[in-house]
Amino acid sequence: MLRSVWQSKACSHISQTRSLLTLAIETSCDDTSVAVLETAASGLNCPTSSSAQLHFHEKVTADNAKYQGIHPMVSLESHNAHLAPLIAKALRSLPPASAKSNGCTSPSIPVRTANQWLQRKKPDFISITRGPGLLASLSAGLQTAKGLAVAWQVPLLGVNHMQAHALTPRLVHALVSSISNRQDREPAFPFLTLLVSGGHTMLVHSKALPHHSILASTTDIAIGDAIDKAARCILPQETIAAATDVMYGRLLEDFAAPRDGTGSDYYYLSPRTRAEELSRKPSRWGWALAAPLAETRSGSRSRAMEFSFSGLGSAVLRICQQRGQEMTREERVDLAREVMRVAFEHLASRVVMALESLHETRSSDVAAEGEIGTLVVSGGVASNRFLKKMLRSFLDIRGYSQIRLLFPPPSLCTDNAAMIAWTGIEMYEAGYESDLGCKALRRWSIDPNADDGGILGASGWQRRREIDKREKDK
Q1: What tens digit of pLDDT does each residue of 386-421 get?
Q2: How far is residue 474's CA from residue 357's CA, in Å, rounded to a whole number?
Q3: In terms of C-beta density within 10 A (0-12 exposed, 13-18 middle, 19 or more buried), how is residue 262 classed?
Q4: How far apart are CA 171 and CA 54, in angstroms?
Q5: Is 286 left (phi over 0), alpha (psi -120 to 50) or beta?
Q6: How far apart are CA 158 and CA 457, in angstroms?
Q7: 3-state DSSP call for residue 123?
Q8: In 300-459, where do the E strands start and end?
Q9: Predicted model pTM
Q10: What are the distances in angstroms from CA 259 to CA 206, 255, 339, 384?
């Protein structure tokens, strides 16, 4: 009996110092992605690990080219066709199961390879995108994740997709950190997060792991959607026809500044003042694009903490219709560059306003959160080279050269399971799990002040201490 108690305590001690392994699934929209992520073992004085290894990470994107946009049923069919094969492939990348020198065995599962069965380390829990996103797509992934959790008798952790985008730079930091060189996770809270994609545009004050206050969001369409729509007007029809996916914003970027260097003649200088920022800049072709919210009837919305991109899309459509066949390739390139300049300066202007407001709050309130030193830019649009250049220039010229900009690598800007795995690990370390009865959430805010209560406001959360207590009382 004493030996059994000692072994239990020894294994408990190891559970505090061993690594964490998770299999993650992302199916919030048209990307089917699976990842296997493992953190390095951490000591008792360091409850979380700052280094991680990505054993597997792949994704398949649904073929929506025929519809020139995301078709929910096509996306669902793609998830049904590709999710199981990706998981089967991921299982073969799980680390080999290993015996512990103190008698505690490493939980394992049998995995079939081409010629034999192998014992692989069993994931400690399953990470799954729970929302926000397309309900059918989310449900396809969530039900699969529940099945794995039940079959392997491990916990489930439902992840907020937007929280995962915000934490992606912390994943990148962990992937490049060595096990021996232990550092705090970067960026440390608090920081600003600019989430820009085809479905979302928001500026967020990331204060803590589950606490992200929305400072500004779009009142109409997302920036990625606006750029995609502009691209369909501006790009030559042969370019649209030759596209293999519906990422028209990326096509527009390459059209405006080809990666072979032929578009390097583009010169950009940020506006030094608000007046210069809001003024129209007539092109050599006679048209000009207005900055969003700059020309509202009373002018009062020009400093509103919100984004608006529908007017920009309408203006581009009118220009293309008016110019018609007279529009040369050179003019189309100019219009592509101008669309991105106007859209990205609109983003940058709200970042500057937020920094000014937060600085004023800190000056007047000693209890305010720490100084902001980092701006994380994440989501599909974050891979845009124009955006990176313009944001840096805009912040520098407005007196915020000390703000560090963090852009994930392009492969981690778009939807991916690696960021879901990392966010799952951070939430699991904080003591959270999800009930097996949890549902997919089409809408799920990251702001605790939102009507739904934000990340922790969703039903189905469980604290591990409470779970352990219930098990003990049985």
Answers
A1: 999 999 999 999 999 999 999 999 999 999 999 999
A2: 52
A3: exposed
A4: 10
A5: left
A6: 13
A7: coil
A8: 374-378, 404-406, 432-434
A9: 0.88
A10: 33, 9, 19, 12
Among 164, 126, 132, which Cα is nearest to 146's? 126
Residue whose C-alpha is closest to residue 287's, from 327, 255, 250:
327
- d(C-alpha 193, C-alpha 345), whole Å: 16
Beta strand 125-131 with 21-26 is parallel
Report pLDDT digits (tens) over 46-98: 556 678 999 999 999 998 888 878 899 999 999 999 999 999 999 999 999 97
Q: Are 450 and 233 in contact (CB under 8 A)?
A: no
The mean pLDDT value for 187-201 works out to 95
Residue 334 scores a pLDDT above 70: yes
pLDDT score recorded for residue 303: 85
Neighbours of 32 (CB within 10 A): 29
CA distances from 11 to 37, 108, 208 (A): 22, 16, 31
- Distance of alpha carbon 29 from its chain centroid, rounded? 13
Does residue 9 register a pLDDT over 70? no
- Could you tell me the pLDDT band of residue 466, with boundaries at 50, 70 and 90? low
Average pLDDT over residues 319-345: 94
What is the rounded distance in angstroms from the CA atom of residue 370 to the CA atom of residue 359?
Answer: 10
Handedness of CA 304, 305, 310, 313 (dihedral sign): positive
**Judging by DSSP bridges, how do beta strands 191-196 and 201-208 pair with one another?**
antiparallel
Residue 22 has pLDDT above 70, yes or no: yes
Nearest to 346 by CA among 395, 300, 309, 313: 309
CA separation for the pair 384, 243 (Å, rounded): 18
Backbone phi, psi, residue 350, to 5°:
-75, -30
DSSP E strands, 201-281: 201-208, 211-217
